[in-house]
Here is the input.
Amino acid sequence: MSDSTTPSTSPVAVEAWFDLQCSDCFRALDDVRALREKYGERIDVQLRHFPLEKHKHAYAAAQAAEEAAEQGKGWPYAEALLARTTELGDRGEPVLLDVASELGLDAEEFDTALIDGRHLLTVDADQAEGKAIKVTGTPTYVVGGERLDGGKSQDGLRERVEAIVDRLLVG
Here is the structure.
């Protein structure tokens, strides 16, 4: 899921591999916002789904984020949901519908999408690709083919992403 609704003309893609029930991914949003602020249209931040088995509702949350993207609010939905990781863990899928309603999305369509599984293939494809490139935890970033694992520590992660982006923009 990309930042924009139009095909990207950005020279640099920043893939953010997130689990939407992960509190570390919520903290990583500050880095994503800072990257958007610094680089604007020169980067395309792409949300890639890597729901972890330890998070019971992360797989459904990834599907819900894809439905939000279909309805034009993918990143706002992901950010709102990440702000409620504890509540998602406690209450489960009703939180997915609550967030959709709060953002003015069609919650009934969300419910239908979760039941009919229309976004399963997208989430499964992301997860398979993540495993293939050795994503093991979240957040993980892939920039210019380089994988930066923030699952263990986010210290200095944004600076490492910026160094790669700067190099790619110059080269």
User: Anything to note?
Assistant: Confidence is low (pLDDT under 50) at residues 3-7. The chain is about 55% helix and 15% strand. Residues 23-39 form the longest helix (17 residues).
